[in-house]
């Protein structure tokens, strides 16, 4: 014991300061590695310009800032002139103006990523792996990749996939057609004009038959994440009709038949689905609403 009452270690029992330091460094290194590994699994906003926002079920839309994590189940939207770059390690998602897409919570597990792209333009650069780990779902087609750089463009009537390098497997929902795209090749789907895939490139890729399937979401209702193309509130809803009962997820006014809504939306006519923020009016028919951004119509609602 020294004069202060602290033990004095001598001989073999005395711990080495170097050993203590090494143990502390090892502990800190393990903690840092675990933190870095967890962070490496996340998509993070690396760059943002113009009006870009996040929205999710039960979450009001808010402006995106550099360094934010793109949480699973969230939807990102850009206005005219808005752009964003999202990164995960060396992988990138470049988001163009007037684009709306969600990071699927149900289908994105671990390093596997599924985007639900409602509209706009995405350019994606992902690393090559043994198994497909990245996919983009649109209202008209799906693109599944192992590792490549490709672009996806979606409008209200069609979707197109263009490949810069690597290999992308594309399937058309309406016809079931499938095609593997290489560098310089493209495929598009416009079911309202033509059944099946339209392909192009210096060397035309060959399509093959497959099973039809329903898309995960449609152009009217947007991604199943429940987020809408809305830069304001994400939970309120206003609904008006002619006469009767009215129920809405937020505020509701009206007196007609029956009207139900679960989000914000605009809609007129017999069947109505919309993805904005505002008031829904309708006169007859059936209306479906789900998530944020669906309209209401007078008559029977589901």
Description of the molecule:
There is one protein chain. The chain has 302 residues and is mainly beta. The protein has 2 domains: 44-208, Jelly Rolls; 235-302, no CATH class. It has 1 helix and 22 strands. It has one helix spanning 17-40; strands spanning 43-49, 52-56, 59-63, 69-70, 75-78, 83-88, 91-95, 100-103, 113-126, 134-137, 141-154, 159-172, 178-181, 186-189, 197-200, 207-208, 238-240, 244-248, 257-261, 279-281, 286-287, 300-301. The chain has a 16-stranded mixed β-sheet that branches. Strand 12 and strand 13 form a beta hairpin. The chain is globular and about 45 Å long. Residues 2-13, 19-39 and 224-302 have low confidence and may be disordered. It holds the Pfam family FecR.
Q: What does the secondary structure layout of this molecule look like, with pairings?
A:
Layout: H1 17-40, E1 43-49, E2 52-56, E3 59-63, E4 69-70, E5 75-78, E6 83-88, E7 91-95, E8 100-103, E9 113-126, E10 134-137, E11 141-154, E12 159-172, E13 178-181, E14 186-189, E15 197-200, E16 207-208, E17 238-240, E18 244-248, E19 257-261, E20 279-281, E21 286-287, E22 300-301
Parallel strand pairs: 9-10, 17-20, 18-19, 21-22
Antiparallel strand pairs: 1-4, 1-6, 2-3, 2-5, 5-8, 6-7, 7-9, 8-9, 9-11, 10-11, 11-12, 12-13, 12-14, 13-16, 14-15
Q: Structural class, please?
A: mainly beta
Oligomer: single chain
Rg for CA atoms = 26 Å
Distance between the termini: 81 Å
| CATH class membership of the largest domain | Mainly Beta
Largest sheet: 16 strands, mixed
The total domain count is 2
Number of DSSP helical runs = 1
What CATH architecture label of the largest domain applies? Sandwich
The overall pLDDT, averaged over residues, is 73
* Molecular shape: globular
Counted beta strands: 22
SS strand fraction: 35-45%
Biased composition (Basic residues): 205-214
Organism: Roseibium aggregatum
Biased composition (Gly residues): 275-296
Pfam families: FecR
């Amino acid at each position: 014991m020294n004069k202060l009452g602290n033990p004095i270690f001598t001989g073999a029992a005395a711990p080495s300061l170097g050993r203590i330091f090494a143990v502390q460094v090892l502990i800190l290194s393990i903690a840092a590695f675990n933190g870095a590994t967890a962070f490496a699994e996340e998509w993070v906003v690396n760059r943002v310009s113009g009006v870009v926002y996040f929205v999710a079920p039960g979450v009001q839309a808010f402006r995106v800032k550099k360094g934010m994590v793109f949480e699973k189940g969230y939807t990102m939207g850009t206005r005219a002139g808005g752009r964003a770059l999202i990164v995960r390690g060396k992988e990138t998602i470049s988001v163009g103006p007037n684009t709306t897409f969600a990071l699927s919570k149900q289908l994105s597990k671990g390093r596997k990523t599924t985007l639900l792209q409602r509209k706009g333009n995405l350019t994606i650069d992902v690393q090559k792996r043994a198994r497909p780990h990245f996919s983009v779902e649109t209202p008209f087609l799906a693109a599944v990749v192992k590792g490549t750089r490709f672009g996806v463009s979606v409008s209200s009537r069609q979707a197109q996939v263009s490949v810069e390098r690597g290999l992308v497997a594309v399937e058309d929902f309406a016809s079931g057609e499938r095609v593997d795209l290489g560098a310089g090749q493209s495929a598009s789907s416009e079911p309202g004009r033509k059944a099946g895939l339209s392909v192009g490139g210096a060397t035309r890729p060959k399509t093959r038959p497959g099973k039809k399937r329903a898309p995960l979401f449609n152009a009217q209702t947007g991604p199943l994440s429940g987020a809408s193309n809305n830069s304001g509130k994400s939970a309120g809803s206003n609904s008006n009709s002619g006469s009767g009962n009215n129920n809405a997820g937020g505020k509701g006014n009206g007196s007609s038949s029956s009207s139900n809504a679960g989000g914000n939306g605009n809609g007129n006519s017999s069947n109505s689905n919309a993805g904005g923020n505002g008031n829904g009016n309708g006169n007859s028919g059936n209306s479906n609403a789900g998530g944020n951004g669906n309209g209401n119509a007078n008559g029977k609602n589901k």
